[in-house]
Amino acid sequence: MQKRDHMDYQPPYTITAEILNRVAAISEAIGRLALLTDQARALRLRRIARIRTIHGSLAIEGNTLSEAQITAILDGKRVIAPPREVQEVKNALAAYDRLDSWKPEAEKDLLEAHRILMSGLIDEAGLYRRGGVGVMAGQEVIHMAPPANRVPQLMADLFSWLAATDAHPLIASSVFHYEFEFIHPFADGNGRMGRLWQSLILVRWNPLFADIPVESLIFEHQAEYYQSIQESTRQTDSAPFIAFMLRMILDAAANSAPQVSPQVSPQVGELLAAIQGEMAREALQAALSLSDRKSFRKRYLKPALDAGLIEMTIPDKPNSRLQKYRLTGKARQWFAQ
Fold first, then answer.
1. How far apart are CA 136 and CA 92, in angstroms?
2. Which of the listed residues 214, 236, 256 is the one where a domain comes to its end?
3. Are 27 and 172 in a shared domain?
4. Which of 125, 186, 191 is nearest to 155 (CA)?
5. Residue 136 has pLDDT above 90, yes or no
6. What φ, ψ does residue 31 adopt, rounded to 5°?
7. Which of 10, 60, 310, 328 is most buried per CB count within 10 Å?
8. What are the CA-CA distances from residue 294 to residues 164, 275, 285, 297 (Å)?
9. Which of 233, 256, 279 is a domain's end point?
10. Residue numbers of the domain that contains 237
């Protein structure tokens, strides 16, 4: 392991063209996401993102609860599941709820976050580990973390660097995440803490990151996540991990952002122009002077629904006789353009 000078510790990483291009692309995607001024939709997005974030981060650690079960726990409902897994979800919900009150460069906040995240799961919640620890992949030890007696100093160095660095927050958050996993400061919960802290750094840079479930994408690319950590350790340079994380952030931001200019057929355009508030199918057909119900559904209604330009007022019961349709934020954006 590289020798560290405590005064001006600098984590080793190289800024590649790939990393710079991704930083630019993410900034662009975040700019598009900022167009979502519709407050109600922003709050709904935040709730969905929070559930998907917690599901992704805990699933990486082997938690089997579904997004539906996590939603039920969030709503205060009882869930039939292993008690430890329910506890993990409750802790994660409590921790992500506190995101607004923590400062990324404050060590005491990190320790408090770990205490909340691991409460009732391990004895050393909120305390750095007192023993040695190896990172396992199946039966194989893929990384021996530094000795426990060095953890407080290594973490102090990392926090000093984070407080002083002028690296772009997208890069700084990824470097912190990698270094944190390298140090592995806790007896358990290091993975979910590293991901939580990267989210915190990003939210502090731009609050829209609270709406982007990066963790759910890491879960889908789990093997690559561990490979990029291993490769960065092998190279003594966290560039592979930074590039991986930026790809996940870019994909998550692009998926959260509304498509800037949906392709709208003339029929769908006519339908959008005809909608005033909430309208039933019969009223829409009348407004467009269309008598053929089948043709209206196929050429007007279904394409507009599929494109996310209109939505049902009773989505759970598509065939309800009380069903009405209204424009979405995406349609309003299309009109604005």
1. 23
2. 256
3. yes
4. 186
5. no
6. -60, -40
7. 310
8. 64, 19, 11, 5
9. 256
10. 17-256
In one-letter notation, the amino acid at residue 189 is G
CATH number at residue 288: 1.10.10.10
Tokens 């990824």 locate to 174
Q: Are residues 275 and 156 in the same domain?
A: no
Cβ contacts of 320-327, under 8 Å, gap ≥ 24 = 323/280, 323/281, 324/278, 324/279, 324/280, 325/275, 325/278, 325/279, 325/280, 325/281, 325/284, 325/301, 326/275, 326/277, 326/278, 326/279, 327/272, 327/275
The tokens for 233 are: 């350790």
331: Cβ contacts below 8 Å, ≥ 6 apart: 272, 309, 310
Q: Which two tokens stand for residue 117?
A: 């995240």
- Give Cβ neighbours of residue 10 (< 8 Å, ≥ 6 apart): 161
Q: Which residue shows structure tokens 């829209």?
A: 208
Could you tell me the pLDDT band of residue 52, with boundaries at 50, 70 and 90? very high
